[in-house]
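[agent] plan:
  1. take the single chain provided in the ticket
  2. run structure prediction with default settings
  3. attach structure tokens to the ticket
  4. add a short note for the reviewer (M.T.)
[agent] executing step 1
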Amino acid sequence: MKAVKNLFCAAAVALLFFPAFAGGSKDKAAPGNYTLEQGVLKVGTEIGYPPFEYFGEDGKTPEGFDIELGKAVGAKLGLKVEFVDTAWDGIFAGVDTNKYDCIMSAVTITDDRKAKYDFSKPYIGNGQSMVLLKGSTVTAKTPEDLSGLQVGYQAETTSDVYMTKLAENGLKFKALEYDKVLNVFDDLKLGRIDAAVADSLVSVDYVNKPDSPFVMAWQGPADEFFGICMKKGNTELVDAVNKALDELFADGTMKKISENNFGTDIVSSVRK
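[agent] step 2 finished; step 3 output follows
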């Protein structure tokens, strides 16, 4: 999903404060031992990537899978949660410069990232997909068939990496890179691009909406996994977050969060 992004751009940060639910694990470490601020878990997220993170109908309240996950993890740790809305191209820099404790923003776990950051256990699997406009004259069945067409995807993501590899292998198409996945689907709806390539979990949300103008033309296998990203060496936070995730899977909370946002359980398989 959100995959290979620029790690060095300055983060555009706006703080949004939301208390997590009270309660949590009895044997957790004392708040403040592994977070930047005592009693608070600061979470970096790009609020513009539905269904994982987006603003609700009021245009101010963050909603989505990762938002619910962040609140649930905070509750298990006995910490309040502050969501820090950050542009994706600066989101990793925010961890480096202590803007927040972790990132929950559909972050794909990759070898390159693991060399620079610590990750939680995976909490959901994902693959790539290709979406067309209903009634489109495009006959492509897979991304490999998009020769000569205008293809949109979010820059610095696994979709970007996927299409770049196809281009390096000889596929000739016009690439249109966007800052946000929202804009990719907006332009597809307006007919400004021929096809959109995006994470399957994101595309499913767009395709399954009532009266959706989109159709899923191709869906690849789940070959990447999302995790919570943390600063390298903060083993106490990593251990605490992993324990919280274990509990959330065990007590059915993760399944409930999945059903709330996708209408079905697409998380339990990562623990089998």
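[agent] step 4 note for reviewer: Residues 3-31 have pLDDT under 50 and may be disordered.
[agent] ticket updated
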